[in-house]
Each structure stands twice: as C-alpha cells, then as structure tokens.
Amino acid sequence: MNDEIQQRLKWIKLYQETNNAGLVCLRCGISRPTLRKWWSRYQEQGLDGLKSLSKKPHSSPNQKMSPELEAKILVLRKSRNLGARRIQSELLRNEQIKLGLATIHKVLKKHQVDPIVIYRRKPDFKRYSKPIPGERVQMDTCKIAPNLYQYTAIDDCTRYRVLRLYKRRSATNTIDFVESVIEEMPFPIQRFQTDRGTEFFAEKVQKLLMRYKIKFRPNKPASPHLNGKVERSQKTDKAEFYATVDLESEDIHEQLSEWQHYYNWERPHSAHNGNTPIERYFEVSEQTPFSDEIEGFYQADHERVQLSNYRRDLEIAKLKRSL
C-alpha cells in the first residue's frame, strides 16, 4: 500500500469514527468535495477505489498526428532536406494541414531522423540588408529544365519577389521581365543589381532602365556572393516549388504566380523573424520615398551603357574620363 492510499484511508477511518465531515476536513486540510469523492469510491470499490486513476483521456478526437501524416513529414525531410519550419509551410501550402513546430520536431525525433545538411557561408562574407524598399533589387536567371528559364527579382530590403518563366534568356525577355517587375513591385525601384549575364547588358535593356530612371549596377566578375539573396531564393524555388509541380503542365505559369503570391504574402521569412515580405514592407513603408523623389536622385549624366566584358568596359571608361 503506497503513501497516497494510506493517507486517504486515514481520512476515511476518521470520518467513520466521527461522522463529521467538517471536522475531518479541518484536521486533514482537505475540501469537502475531496472527502466526498474518496468516501464514495471507497464504498464502491474498497481499497482499490483509493488508488489514483490515470488522467490520460480514453480517446483523443482532436489529435492531429496519424501514421499517414508522419509519413508525409518524413518524406519532406528525407527527400528534400527540409527543416521543421519549411515542412510546416509545405504542409500548410499544399495540404492545408496546420501543425506546430513542436509537433513536427516530435515526429522527427521519434524516427531519429538525421539533421539537415547546412551549407555554411564563408566567414568573410558579411550579411547586409538595405534599409529602404526598392533601393536595390537583385535580378538573376536560372535554368529550371531544357528550354525553361526562371527570371527572378528580389528586393534587398523586404525580400519581395517577382518571378517569370521563359523559354530562353534573351534581351527581349529581359525587357518583358523588367516591365513586370516595375509594375508588380509595391514600391518604386532605384537600381537593379545583376550578374554579368549578356541578357542584362543588351543596349535596349539598359536604355529601358534609363527611360525609367533606374540605375543599372552589375556585379564585378566572380562575385556571386553579392547577389546572394536572389541566388538563395532560387534555391528555395527549386526545393519548395519545382519539386512539387509538373514542369510540363499547361498551367505551370499560373502555378508559379500562385507560388509568388504565397512567398510574398504568406510564407514566413527567417530574415524577418518570421514575418512575410509584405509585412516587412508595411513596417518600413513610411520610410519609402515616392517616385518623384527617386527621379530627383537619378543623375542621367552619370549613367552610361555598360559592356558585359568587364576589363574592356573599364578601359573605355578610363579613356572617356581622360578626354
């Protein structure tokens, strides 16, 4: 007989001797409902009725986890190397299943899943972020499949993005994409930053930016880290979007548009402490200058058509300055 049963048995015996519930409660420091409960159980079951019962419910109708859902979590982790937060986003976006991070961690721990592979940045690369929306928009292209290329533009401050798919990289497609970015970004753009892809250096592309009074600022050669935000976001596209869709689908462009909206309006971003890009924009919207102010910053005399050949472009610039 354990201590709990012995204590409750003392209450019962004292009550049997005195037949005074108030006296028993006063001496033993218990309430009348407590005495009433154990007296009732003792009468029905004897000493067995004084044992503590399990508080675990007989059934859990609201329990969300199931073997099928566990399997989905494990597939997302093992096949796509997604962390708990990304698994949470994928289940919500594709399955309309809302789970807490603790629940997902519990499943991963239960199945002893290996930690995700983390690729560390070089220590000499310092993380930065522009304070004003539109101050710098990184633009890049990546090959998704044969004859299928994604153009990506991401704002350095808010991480707000615009995405498009084209059959090839070309100046014509770049112009079409730039027009889309200017139209869809919720703030005016001051400069575009790109790598040295020839699709960005076409004269008609740069002339278009000059007409819109947007600065063209390509990176130096062998400097992919300077375009790190757009590079990283394209990696996210491949892991979280293209891994879940049929690239030959007729509505692939519509699906990409839905993914773009989800990324900008619903997907939590670790760089913003879990806020979405649009929420970050609302936080700093009052600091964002209007279009007429930005046009005033633009100095047309300082802009020129640049060449994709970096060394040749530097030589020409030096000659112009010496004249």
TrEMBL record:
Q: Which Pfam families match?
A: HTH_28 (PF13518), rve (PF00665)
Domain annotation Integrase catalytic: ranges: 129-285
Q: Name one GO molecular function term.
A: nucleic acid binding
Q: Which GO terms describe its biological process?
A: DNA integration
Origin: domain of life: Bacteria
Under PROSITE patterns, the record lists:
INTEGRASE (PS50994)
PANTHER family in the record = INTEGRASE PROTEIN, TRANSPOSASE RV3428C-RELATED
Q: What is this protein called?
A: IS481 family transposase
Q: Which organism is it from?
A: Pseudoalteromonas phenolica
